[in-house]
Design brief:
CATH topology of chain A: Udp-n-acetylmuramoylalanyl-d-glutamate--2,6- Diaminopimelate Ligase, Chain: A, domain 1
Number of helices of chain B: 5
Largest interface: A-B, 20 and 27 residues
Structural class of chain B: alpha+beta
CATH class of chain B: Alpha Beta
Largest sheet of chain B: 5 strands, antiparallel
Helix content of chain B: 25-40%
Number of domains of chain B: 1
Number of strands of chain A: 4
Largest sheet of chain A: 4 strands, parallel
CATH topology of chain B: Heat Shock Protein 90
CATH architecture of chain A: 3-Layer(aba) Sandwich
Oligomer: heterodimer
Strand order of the largest sheet of chain B: 1-2-3-5-4
Strand content of chain A: 5-15%
Number of domains of chain A: 1
Radius of gyration of chain B: 14 Å
Helix content of chain A: 25-40%
Strand content of chain B: 25-35%
CATH superfamily of chain B: Histidine kinase-like ATPase, C-terminal domain
CATH class of chain A: Alpha Beta
CATH architecture of chain B: 2-Layer Sandwich
Distance between the termini of chain A: 24 Å
Amino acid sequence: MLCCEDELDVQIHNACGSDMMSDVLAFVKDQTALLTGLVNPQVVRTAMMMDMRCIVFVRGKTPTPEIVNLAKDNHIVVLASPLRMYEACGRLYANHLAEKES
Amino acid sequence: MSDELKFHFDVHGDNFTSAGEASVEVKKKLRQLGFPPDVIRRVSIAMYEGEINMVIHARGGEADVLVYPDRIVIVLEDHGPGIANIDLAMQEGYSTAPDSVRSLGFGAGMGLPNMKRYTEEMNIESTVGVGTKITMVVKVQ
């Protein structure tokens, strides 16, 4: 976990995984977590536009302090995982973070 | 009509990192003004995609947001290369953005379609070699 530990009690009901931000902006509705292997400040801005509360950087990608600070300023929890996208999404889905719940 | 609020932004074309800052600002202002979350989200996504487009394709431009009680009008104007074929540009997946932009998470040919998706009205005026002006309207409720 890289920032916003104090936001850990926020409830997350669904998520989406993508490296293309325009796809996130097109197809996501009320998803509250974003899993991505893309590392730049636009990931945080995309999450902000969608009112998302959590970003998970997969494939061992490490966001820069600038990215983490932008997320922190906007109360978005940032996590980093060594898992690949498929497995990270799969684990969340298998643990009942299902798409249809909201 | 008379009680509009107007916000103006210069969108700088030389810095991809700061692209989207105007949209963030608009989102904050609309929240302060008490607009419904759905309206705020649609305005900010449409404007954000437009801002990214201006940075990617047109070396920046200008954004004006007019806020009325019943609608929000977004006007984006640039002096970039223009859009040669607007019908083609509106197709999902069609993009003229270079691979370098795709590696940044954009340029998938979803920008203009997303702008249309989230707004009630969208008008594109574009002249090749002169520039592009996009006007979008999001109705409240």
